[in-house]
Specification:
Elements (H helix, E strand, L loop, with lengths): L1 E7 L3 H10 L7 E7 L6 H7 L3 E4 L4 H11 L4 E4 L4 E3 L3 H11 L6 E8 L4 H17 L8 E4 H6 L10 H9 L4 E10 L2 H6 L3 H14 L4 H8 L1
Parallel strand pairs: 1-2, 1-4, 2-3, 6-8
Antiparallel strand pairs: 4-7, 5-8, 6-7
Helix pairs in contact: 1-2, 9-10
């Protein structure tokens, strides 16, 4: 029923938990690890857990696109390597698929962070507002889409940055369903960069993307 595509690059510290959360009775899945050249234990973890490991050019857009090419199931779920789906995700996926067989819809999960800090809860509320009023979920919320619909919109483009924003814009916000199940993402980058500074930087870079600055130039600022 479902191919799960996970792009990785030196993701050994988080991949084990991500894959463990995907183990669910009653739902048939094909897990594909699209690796961009990891030098840690990422590839070993993938093979030990029975995932299909493929090599792809470094870059999330390219890795997602290559992973989709290797997928053989009628539904695709794209997931970040540091994002763990909460309990009950399989039921949410099955319900969505059963209601969406004829309509060209896609779905994303609810954004959450694995940090008890009140700042994490504030950021979660900001993301919920962004999704509700701007119709702009990011890749760390996952993306569930049928193969037919994915091919119809030409899938992920091999962009160095904002491949998630690009595909969401082509899908159209009216065609996105927001699932109640959480996709719990590592908060390490926010702990390192700050819960104020990092979102502000992200917003500034996104603004540059919307006014037409090429993603490869924005990437220099992002890094």
């Amino acid at each position: 029923m479902l191919s799960i595509i996970i792009p990785t690059l030196n993701a050994a510290t988080s991949l084990e938990a991500t894959l463990s959360a995907l183990e669910a009775p009653g739902i048939e899945t094909q897990v594909i690890i699209s690796d961009g050249g990891s030098s840690d234990g990422t590839q070993g973890i993938a093979t030990q857990r029975g995932a299909l490991l493929i090599e792809a050019p470094t870059g999330r857009g390219a890795q997602l696109a290559e992973g989709a090419k290797a997928a053989t199931r009628p539904w695709l779920l794209f997931l970040h390597a540091d994002t763990r789906l909460d309990a009950g995700w399989q039921s949410a996926v099955e319900t969505f698929i059963s209601k969406t067989e004829e309509a060209p819809k896609a779905a994303v999960f609810k954004f959450a962070l694995n940090d008890p800090n009140p700042a994490a809860r504030r950021l979660e509320k900001i993301v919920a507002w962004r999704c509700r009023w701007l119709g702009l979920p990011y890749g760390d919320q996952g993306l569930l889409i049928s193969r037919a619909h994915y091919d119809q919109i030409d899938g992920f483009r091999e962009l160095p940055l904002y491949e998630d924003v690009d595909i969401i814009r082509r899908l159209g916000h009216r065609n996105i369903t927001y699932l109640e199940t959480a996709a719990i993402t590592s908060a390490s980058r926010y702990r390192q960069s700050g819960y104020i500074l990092r979102p502000l930087r992200n917003a500034a870079c996104l603004s540059l993307y919307f006014v037409g600055l090429p993603p490869h130039l924005i990437g220099r600022l992002y890094q």
